[in-house]
Design goal:
This is DUF2934 domain-containing protein. It comes from Azospirillum argentinense. It holds the Pfam family DUF2934. Keywords: Plasmid. The protein has a domain of 42 residues. The termini are far apart. It contains three helices and no strands. It is mainly α and 63 residues long. Helix content is 73%, strand content 0%.
Amino acid sequence: MDEHRIRHRAYEIWEQEGRPEGRRAEHWERARRELQKEDERAKEQGPEPRDLARASADSGAGI
């Protein structure tokens, strides 16, 4: 999982909670879990139609 995404989400959580001190690890773990679930849902749903079109274009299909 991308550390940058986790850091960004943990920062959002920190701000939403009023920037409390001493909860960095809690926010990091919550962000990691949220993003992991998000990634799992995306895998279950499969690629978005625009992603399929892009993959087709990138592979040279239709040339």
